[in-house]
UniProtKB/TrEMBL annotation:
Transmembrane segments: none annotated. It comes from Phenylobacterium parvum. The keyword Metal-binding applies. Residues 56-114 form the Cupin type-2 domain. It holds the Pfam family Cupin_2. It comes from the Bacteria. Keywords: Metal-binding. PANTHER family: CUPIN TYPE-2 DOMAIN-CONTAINING PROTEIN (PTHR35848:SF6), OXALATE-BINDING PROTEIN (PTHR35848). GO terms for molecular function: metal ion binding. This is Cupin domain-containing protein. SUPFAM superfamilies: RmlC-like cupins.
Amino acid sequence: MSVQATLVHEADCELEGWEEPAPGLVTWRTLFSGERTPTRGLVQGVAEVRATLATRPGLHRHAHAETYYILSGRGVIDLDGEMRPLAPGDAVFIPGDAWHAAWSEGDEPLRILYTFAADAFEDVVYEFADKG
């Protein structure tokens, strides 16, 4: 597939999600990814995090750098053991191999525009820390 200018609509993208800690707590729609769109060099999507501190997603890392831009909701990110609040308009740079997890505070889901420095989402290999 050759690279070309591309327009996508979030609502037209497949809803995906993790099975743990419970289905539906973290969902996302991948907007741009080389295996799905005629693009290369970045992966971008919108995640919705309903997880709270009690149900937060497991700490994870991947070799690719990632950014978060908070679209709506309020939450917290654990970034290499440092807890930081998240609010609309905040941007976070997550270096490759940094342990991280974000979760919502309150009833409103945390909506995050995420971007990876990768050609395709399938190139991003997640490693999860033991929640034990």
